Each structure stands twice: as structure tokens, then as C-alpha cells.
Fold these 3 entries.
Entry 1:
Amino acid sequence: MIFSPSFLNMPLDILIGFAVPFHVWYGVHHVAEDYVPKSYLPATNVLLYLITAIAVLGLLNLNFRGDGIIESIKSLWRDEEDKKKQKRA
């Protein structure tokens, strides 16, 4: 926590912001191919693309307007005094 936040946070936040939604899309896409009837597959794919795009935009919003993904996750383990110090800095 001494070096938090680091200059590496932003590139990693952006990478995570794209990698996690893509990873979820890839997995759910193949599950849908296996279990969704062929007649519903095009609508399911459109819905899946839409949900993935919303997830990417939400994570990018967190990265550029908020604390970022890494700092948001770290804040779950910080106590209140550390959070107050972080806000003052």
C-alpha cells in the first residue's frame, strides 16, 4: 500500500477494463452456442454484444472518471483512516 496508487494503475485498469468483459463474452458466447436453440441464437448474440459493450463502457467510466478498477478493489480492504488519508493526498 506504500506505492498506491502507482503509475502502472491506469494501463492495467484499461487492460482489465477490456480483458474481463471480453473473457466473459467469449465464455458465455460458447455456452449460448451449445444451449440456446438455433432460432434464438442471433438475438442472443445481439444481446450479448450489447451487455458486453455496456460492461466495457462502465469499466472505462470507472477508470477515467473514478478511482479505477485496481484502486476500487484495494479500497475494499482499506480501513477508514487509510481512506481519509487517500482523499487528502
Entry 2:
Amino acid sequence: MCSSMSSTSAGRASAVSSQQRPVAALIRWADVIFVMERKHLNRLRAEYARLLEHKRLHVLDIPDDYRFMDPELVDMLDDLVTSCLAV
């Protein structure tokens, strides 16, 4: 990823820690939002439609069944996110 970019992960709802920033704050902070599956985007839109109005949203179509930092997942994310940002 480009050194002039910052990223963070909101994680899954079932895995969110008590120290994690609220989703609304992450949406306000982000210029671009990536989700693994369409159902994740649907959940965000159902709860935060107004905050998402002017955000670039991308569904990566990656099944959300990988372990944290799985090398295969990291490679897929790197490829897909890089190609989305290059457009």
C-alpha cells in the first residue's frame, strides 16, 4: 500500500473489541470503504446510509471465512484493493 495512505479495519461485529472506535467514526474518517461481501455492504447501508452517501464503496467478493492475517487473504486483499484504488 502507498505510504501516503492510512487504513484500518472495522472487523466483524462478533469480533469487535471494546476499544475499537464506533463504526460511524470510521465511516466519517474513510474516503474509501472496502467490504468483503455484499451482505456486509447491505448491513452498513441499512444502518449508516446517510454517512455513506458520498463515500467510495467497494465489495471485494471475498468469502469472510479466512483467519486473521491468513497469507492467502492478505495477498487477495493486496491485489484487489490495489486494483480498485488504481482506477
Entry 3:
Amino acid sequence: MTSQQFAYIESDSSLGAASALPYMPISLIYGEKEVSVSALVDSGAALSVLPYSTGVQLGAVWDEQTIPVNLSGNLAASEAAHYSLPAAFPAFHRSVSPSAGHVATMSR
């Protein structure tokens, strides 16, 4: 098994190191578009949530999504929809296809 270390990035300057979370670079692909983003490393997550703005960058059309997703926790009030996206993980020299069961949820 390959192990990697990822930078912890502070998400709230008023909290400093207490708000630091691990992020890794990934590339998301939707149709002919590809967007490189930093993704939160959460090895226990059942799905990935991407911001509405990232979906728009990829060319996803919110109103065309017909599978609603119910989120919980701090995202419980967010409207979300299902997308299946291929992703590339440069840190691991690996790509995955949506058929591999990786699901992204776009939240707005």
C-alpha cells in the first residue's frame, strides 16, 4: 500500500491551527472539461461533496440533475444533487471512473 502525506491547510484564520485539515490535489472530469482542485482528505466518507461553483466550472447544469441527495451534519440544509465523475489523483498516479462507484455530490 502506498502512503502519502498531505499538507494541513487552515480554513479559518481566527481559529488558526485548530481549523487545519488535510487537502490533496485532484482533477475532476465532466464531459470535455477538466478542473483541478484541492480536495479534503476524508478516508471514511461515503461520497464527495463539491461546491456548486466547481460544478459550474465543469459545465454541469444544476436543473438537469434528477437524483436528489440528502446531506447531513453541517451540510444538512444544503440542496444537493448526484453526479458521477471520473477523477484523477496525481499524488497516487491513479485515475478512477464513475463506474468504480465514486460519487460526487454538487451542493449549492
